[in-house]
Amino acid sequence: MKTKILKVLKSTSGYVSGQELCESLGVSRTAVWKVIRQLEEDGYSIEAVRNRGYRLLEGNDVFTEEEIRSILQTKQIGQNLVFLDIVDSTNNEARRQAEQGAPDGTLVVAVEQNAGKGRRGRSWISPKGTGIWMSMILRPNIPPEYASMLTLVAAMAVESGIRQVTGLTGQIKWPNDVILNDKKVCGILTEMSTEMERIHYVVIGIGINVSIREFPKELADKATSLLLCTGRIVSRARLTAAVAEAWEVYYGRFLQTLNLDLLIEEYNDNLVNRNREVKVLAPEGAYTGICRGINEKGELLVETSHDMRVVVSGEVSVRGIYGYV
To answer: In terms of pTM, does the model score above 0.85?
Structure first.
């Protein structure tokens, strides 16, 4: 009932009478009053005026399961929503949920992680109330070797969600870091369970720095947050929903072709290093060249003085010549 009342308050510009809520939900005035109190305890600012009813005030960054559900407009992603106050990492929880049979499209969201994971075993700083820590469970009927492209699709979804909610236009550092003002605002970690030529499930973890005000000295020149970029608090629930909705659009295009043919132009337009000199740190040795974008498989094309090299995600690190990007 809390989600239903919240949706009514959100969809009404003025006041909603208590009697109207009672009749539409088939409950008593006391039940409605109790839910309003619960919503206020969750952090919502609700104005109550005698003989007029209730009105939801603006400017709330409430991050609860009910808030996300009241905004989310997806067909699949997040329809099975697992919302947690604290977890070791949402990727770990998503894997546990997947092993227990959680359906395709399950979304795991946490207010806080105490063991957040980044790429190559690094930790991901994820303090309470300062970011979006979420993981999607996918069960795609595709060969395992195609799964690496999903992390690029996820980066596009995050950039699109940020743009929709904040108005900021981000860029992507291949393969999946989302960049604002030449600093990383989001990291994505993709993990999967497979056997032979079959995928059991894929977990795509997304960490977005929303309202972190200060980073450790070793990260200050590489990381940023939406608060630092916009100067204001961004609704985590709105952004969570926007990313999930954008994911469904981009993922649908990917599934049409099982490659990035329908996404490659937009991805390359957002690629921060495109047509710039980059340094490729490969196992066989580092080299430099000009980044020419990705191909339909999501591999990076780097033009050296001798040839065009194809860089495969996961095997190397690509950096700008003069810094992170």
So the answer is: no
* pLDDT surpasses 70 at 199: yes
SS3 314: coil
Q: Any idea which residue has 């056997």 for tokens?
A: 195
256-260 own/partner pairs: CB under 8 Å, 24+ apart: 258/142, 258/146, 259/146, 259/149, 259/296, 259/297, 260/149, 260/152, 260/153, 260/294, 260/295, 260/296, 260/297, 260/298
**What value does the mean pLDDT take over residues 270-275?**
94
Residue whose token pair is 């991805």? 267
CA dihedral 192, 173, 225, 266 (to 10 degrees): -90
Q: Is pLDDT of 59 > 80?
A: no
pLDDT > 90: percent of the chain: 61
Contacts of residue 127, Cβ cutoff 8 Å, sequence gap at least 6:
112, 212
| CA–CA gap between residue 114 and residue 119 (Å, rounded) | 16
292 token code pair:
């020419």
